[in-house]
Amino acid sequence: MIPALALLAGVVLGLVLEPTVPALLQPYLPIAVVAALDAVFGAVRAQLDRIFDDRVFVVSFVSNVLVAALVVFLGDQLGVGGQLSTAVVVVLGIRIFSNAAAIRRHLFKA
Amino acid sequence: MSRLRGDAGEPGRPGALRRVLRVGLRPRLRRVDLLVALLLAALGFAAAVQVRSTRVDGVLASARPEDLVRILDDLSGRNDRLRAEVGALTSARERLTSPDADAAALAEADRRAQLLGVLTGTVPAAGPGVLLTIEDPDAGVRAEALLDALEELRAAGAEALQLEGAGADGAAAAVRVVASTSLVDGDAGVQVDGTLLRPPYRYRVVGDSGTLTSALGIPGGVVDTIARVGGKADVQAQDDVQVTAVRDLQQPRYARPAPGG
Asked: How far is the alpha carbon of B93 from chain A, nearest alpha carbon, in Å?
């Protein structure tokens, strides 16, 4: 409940404050958001599997975000930033889908 | 909270939904839970910001590179055109809003027009000079004598002059004498540029009065010549001679200002 409320509060805060994304962060923010979403879906699935661990979640969340940003950064340096961004999004998307499928099976037995 | 938990059916095998609810609703106070909440808040914040910024500059962000190049070309072309227009308008404004340059040019043109007007006889002139009065009781003074006097005056530096006399109707008449002035013998007088003048004649001359007076008075000069034909010439220096007769400006029929002049 508290994490859901925190998520909601973050969304509201982002909409109300309307900050502009610094140019330095612009390529990394969308990837970081997708990586964090992957961590959150994984956490929900772990919760349902009764193997959720706070510390694991925190570490996976942070490392997901950092690794995704690092990969995009490396891609930018190598001149393949766009392609690597796509690759990261695809991989994370697949993981999100599989996690969502597991959650669905837990919740709806289907 | 407790009511929700109490309502749960099948206590031995709680459903997945119930499990989520129970875990989520359990009071949490540990530090790591705060960290989790903080991370999720950050996620929500970042997602909202990203969605918003994507919506703001979505048009260009989703455009293909070729389109972006074309748009950039259009913009820089328009930029160049507008910059050129700005330059032209700025210089036009500079020209229009600097009264000094304008007034100076106008004054200079005016001054030149006045000077040329004095030379061409289109404006009155005044200044020091002499009055040369020629009386002719014996009707012996002809156009030739007057022309001699005129040439002597010009040679002595006359700058503006007019020839006066009695008109055909007896009233005083005056003709501005310029480069093209002609003197022809007429009926009991002289035709000056078509105007008949009768004695007594008077040259009203603006110039250096000393030079003019001595030029007219030299032995065998104008005064002597007039006296020889029975006339009487009188030279009178004056500080302020008014040459008031003017003539219309003649538009040259053939001559045009040469380019580069």
From this structure: 40
The pLDDT tens digits of the residues spanning B78-115 come to 999 999 999 999 988 887 777 777 777 788 888 888 88
* Token couple for A91: 């991989």
Nearest to B177 by CA among B245, B252, B115: B245
Cβ-defined contact of A9 to B44 (cutoff 8 Å): yes
CA distance B46 to B2: 35
Domain total of chain B: 2
pTM above 0.95, yes or no: no
Domain assignment present for B230: yes
Backbone angles phi, psi at B192, to 5 degrees: -110, 110
In a domain, residue B42? The reply is: yes
Smallest Cα–Cα separation from B46: which of A41, A63, A21, A76? A21
Helix, strand or coil for residue A63?
helix
Containing domain of residue B48, as a range? Answer: 2-53
Tokens of B220: 């065998």
Tell me the CA end-to-end span of chain B in Å, nearest whole number.
Answer: 106
Residues of A in contact with B54 (CB under 8 A): 30
Which residue in B has a C-alpha nearest to residue A28's C-alpha? B50
Do the Cβ atoms of A2 and B30 come within 8 Å?
Answer: no
CATH code, domain carrying B138 = 3.30.70.1880
Position B112 in a domain:
no
